[in-house]
Known about the structure:
Elements: H1 8-16, H2 22-40, E1 43-46, H3 48-63, E2 75-79, H4 106-113, E3 117-122, H5 156-163, E4 169-174, H6 180-186, E5 189-192, E6 212-217, H7 220-230, E7 260-264, H8 274-289, E8 293-297, H9 302-320, H10 339-350, H11 353-366, H12 371-393, E9 398-402, H13 418-423, H14 429-433, E10 438-445, E11 451-458, H15 463-477, H16 486-499
Parallel strand pairs: 2-3, 2-4, 7-8, 7-9
Antiparallel strand pairs: 1-3, 4-6, 5-6, 5-10, 9-11, 10-11
Amino acid sequence: MGILDFTALELGQKIQKKEISVREAAEAALERAKAAEPVINSYVTLDPEGALIQADEIQRKIDAGELTGPLVGVPVAVKDNMCIKGQLTTCSSKILSNFKPVYTAEAVINMQNAGAVILGKTNMDEFAMGSTTETSYYGPTKNPHNTSHVPGGSSGGSCAAVAAQECFGALGSDTGGSIRQPSSFCGVVGMKPTYGTVSRYGLVAYGSSLDQIGPITKDVSDCAAFLEVIASHDPKDSTSIRRDDCRFTEALVDDVKGMKIGIPRDYMGEGLDDEVRKAVMDAAKVLEEKGAVVEEFDLGLVKYAIPAYYTIASAEASSNLERFDGVKYGYRTAEYEDLHNMYKKTRSEGFGAEVKRRIMLGSFVLSSGYYDAYYLKALRVKALIKKAFDSAFEKYDMILGPAAPTTAPELGKSLSDPLKMYLGDIYTISVNLAGLPGMSVPVGKDSKGLPIGMQLIGNVFQEKKLLRAAYTYECATEKQFEHAAEMDMETETAKEAHQA
C-alpha cells in the first residue's frame, strides 16, 4: 500500500507514529500532481516549494510535541476562491488573474493550525458560476474516472484532485450544490454544512446568503475530521454561528436503528437517469436493512427551487461582483478613454460569458419595476421551501435522494445549453435556499464506469445524523475509495503530448 492509498486520517496516524515523514507525504502528492496535471488540470496554482517549506516546519513542530492533531502533516488543496496571503487567488477568472490577497481565509487558517500542508489552489468554474468546471479562464478540469467527461462544478478542481489522489482532501464551496454534485461525479465524499457553521471570511463571495465552505474527502471519516477542524465561530463573519456540537467524529457510529429516512417522490420521477435511481434506491435498501425506517413522501415546491435560486443567486452576484472594476486590484484594460470607459472595457474583457450572463440577470431582477415581480417573489418562495423542509423534518431524521439527475456529462455538452445545465442543480439548490446541511456519498457506478452519488439532507445543525448514516452505509458495503487508474492517466498524458 503506497502513501497515496491512505485516507487522510490513516496518513495522519502514520505521520504521528513517525512511520512516514511530512515531507515524504507532501512529495508523494506533488509527484502525483506533476504526473496527472497535464491531463486532469485540477490546480490553478500548485506550490511545490511552499508546500515543502510547510512540511519541514510542521515536522519540526511534531518532533517538538507542539502538533498532535489527526490531520497533522496531511497534504490538502484549497479551492481558488479562498484567500491565502501572498498566493494567487484568481477565482479561475481573468479579472483576478494577478490578485494576491493580504490575508488568509478563516477556514484555511483553521486547516493550517491543524497542521495540514496546503499544496495549492484548485480550478473551478469562474467565480463559482457553473456546474462543470468548464467556465474556468484556465481551461476545463477533467474527470479522473473518464477524462472525456466533466468533474462537475463549481468545486470540480477540488473533487478531481481528491479523486486523482493529487491530495488527501480539499476545501470547496457550495452555493447551489457546488460541493455535492462534483463529489457525486468524481466518486468522493463532500459535505455542505449548515449555513454559518464554517466562516465565510476570506471566501470571495458569489451569493452571500447561500455560500458555504465544506470538506471534500476520500471517505466519511475524513469528512467528519475535516469538518471538525474548519467549523468555528468567527467574529469577522456576521453570519457565523457559535455551535457547541462540533465534535463531528463522535458521529462515526455504525448504527442507524430506528432512524427515519424520507425519500421525496419529487426527486425520483421524471428526468432522473434509471441507473442513478437504481443505485440510490439500492443504497436506501442497505440503510433499511441496517434498521432505518425508509419511506417515500411528497416534499413539494421542487419545481420552484431553480427559478428562485437563480434569481436570488444572480441578484447577490451582481452586487458582489461590482467591486471588480479594475481600479483597486485585479485586471485592468490596457487602453481606455475615461473612467467609465475603463470600467466597461475592464469588465467586458475580464469576465467570462457565464459570469456576464448572471450579472445581467441579477441586475435585471434588482432593477426598478422588476424588483417586486422577481426578487421579492423569489425570497417568498425561499421561505416556503424552508417551511416545506421544516414540515418534512417533523417526521424524518433526514432526507435521501440523488445528488444529480445523471452521471457526469461529456466535456463540451453542457455550456451550449445553459438552461439544461441549470436544471442539473434540481436536487441540490433547495438545501442552500433553506440553509440546511447536505452531503454526497458514493454509491456505485453506471454502465460507463462513472461514479454515482447519494445525497443525504438533514435539518439545521444535524450534520452528525448525516455522518452517522453515511458511515453506516460505508461500513455495510465496505466501500473503498476508488481512484482513477494511474495507467490510464499516464496513457492520456502521453497521447496529449504526442498530439501537441
